[in-house]
Design brief:
Layout: H1 2-27, E1 29-41, E2 50-63, H2 67-87, E3 103-104, H3 111-125, E4 133-143, E5 150-161, E6 176-183, E7 190-200, E8 203-209, H4 212-217, H5 235-246, H6 253-257, E9 263-265, E10 268-270, H7 273-286, E11 292-297, H8 302-309, E12 315-319, E13 324-332, E14 344-349, E15 352-357, H9 358-361, E16 385-390
Antiparallel strand pairs: 1-2, 1-4, 2-3, 4-5, 6-7, 7-8, 8-13, 9-10, 11-16, 12-13, 12-16, 13-14, 14-15
Helix pairs in contact: 5-7
InterPro entries: Peptidase_C39-like
Pfam family, one: Peptidase_C39_2
Protein name: Peptidase C39-like domain-containing protein
Length: about 400
């Protein structure tokens, strides 16, 4: 009998300790975040058709054992903010749901003015501004890790009237400069155009064009589609093809693949950053362009991309968490906020011209989780960009 009592006492004491451990873990709070923004969808005659604006973060706490609960709470806070502001979009200030607590980096005051200004500025930037107005869809969007993703349609028909722009206070914008970029080739120089728009002290748009006529009409330097060459052989080969066209070198993907190695890893086709840099430099030299050097950098920021873009050449970036190569030929700051998180980038993505925010580029990633991590000398590093500069 005494032995049975001892067993019971041991069992209950162990159970109590276990419960206290669980309570202790739950009592220890953590915080997790979700990214949020407004998604604008244009009619299909506008390309690129989708942009995201008004980027901010929602951050909430919860027990350490349930991090997804934190993100679900953050997601709810973000959508409460966007819903409340949409319902009060004509008022001069953001609602309380957007102004404090879990909401971080919300830059919008009067939402109606903000949407009008950003839509007008975007359409002007890509050279697709209709005469009087345009009707767009507006969605509330949250993204991030597990528990964050949600998209809600706020309206399918939102009219943006361009005559209203002149009445919006404190819009950013100013001097426009166009600079001729000379690319020296043995058979004669190639001229490209860099357009710079000063929106505020230290805040600029930088956009590349193939010609002065394109710059006048805001036709941004885009993807190059080689006739009959539409088979996917890896984003690294295609991004090289798109960028080389800017230097006046128009080659098939097959011809480019003789210079740049690619590797099959499962179902994916990988091009290592070091191989991409070396191959591009060799192609430039073999085609009579010897005054341009190609460099590779890692851990890069928005400011770094601007630094190389304003030299008049595209920037190649390793995006989507280290899984994809794209080229950037334009950067547009917000029309109404100096916050860098609101920047948009003109992105050459395989065969398609797209526009992404800084958040959507996703240059940061954990290399240990990638299929190529255990392969030596891959040179895959977060924040990797490949840039072009004139030799001194």
């Amino acid at each position: 009998m005494e032995r049975r009592r001892s067993i019971y006492r041991f069992f209950f004491s162990t159970l109590i300790v276990f419960i206290f451990i669980l309570i202790g873990v739950e009592a220890k709070t953590i915080k997790r975040s979700c990214h949020a923004c407004y998604k604008v969808i244009f009619p299909n005659y506008i390309q690129p058709q989708i942009i995201t604006i008004g980027h901010f973060t929602a951050r909430r706490g919860c027990g350490a054992s349930v991090p997804d609960r934190c993100r679900r709470r953050a997601r709810r806070s973000a959508h409460s903010c966007m819903k409340a502001h949409w319902e009060s979009r004509s008022l001069p200030k953001a609602p309380p749901e957007c102004c404090c607590g879990p909401i971080k980096g919300y830059v919008i005051s009067k939402l109606d003015d903000y949407i009008h200004a950003e839509v007008y500025d975007y359409l002007s930037w890509i050279g697709s501004l209709p005469k009087d107005s345009i009707t767009v869809e507006i969605h509330a969007l949250t993204t991030g890790y597990s528990g964050c993703k949600k998209e809600v349609t706020l309206t399918k028909r939102y009219s943006v009237h361009f005559d209203r722009i002149k009445n919006i206070p404190n819009l950013l914008g100013g001097a426009v400069q166009k600079k001729v970029i000379l690319i020296q080739k043995k058979n004669g120089p190639i001229k490209r155009i860099l357009k710079t728009v000063k929106k505020a002290p230290g805040v600029y748009d930088y956009t590349l064009f193939y010609s002065a006529e394109d710059a006048d009409k805001n036709r941004i330097a885009g993807v190059y589609n080689h006739k009959g060459d539409n088979k996917y052989v890896g984003c690294g080969i295609k991004v090289a093809q798109n960028v080389l066209a800017y230097f006046g070198i128009k080659k098939s993907q097959r011809a480019i693949s003789h210079y740049i190695k690619s590797y099959k890893i499962g179902k994916n086709i990988a091009v290592y950053p070091s191989d991409l840099r070396k191959g591009l430099e060799k192609i430039l030299a073999d085609n009579g362009i010897e005054n341009i050097k190609v460099d590779r950098y890692s851990g890069m920021s928005q400011a770094d991309i601007e630094t190389y873009l304003k030299q008049g050449f595209p920037v190649i970036a390793l995006v989507d968490g280290g899984n994809h190569w794209v080229a950037i030929t334009g950067k547009k700051a917000s029309k109404i906020s100096e916050d860098r998180q609101q920047n948009l980038y003109y992105v050459l993505d395989n065969w398609k011209n797209t526009v992404r925010s800084w958040y959507d580029l996703k240059l940061k990633f954990d290399e240990r989780g990638k299929a190529w991590y255990h392969i030596s000398n891959t040179s895959y590093i977060p924040g990797t960009i490949i840039v072009f500069q004139k030799k001194e």
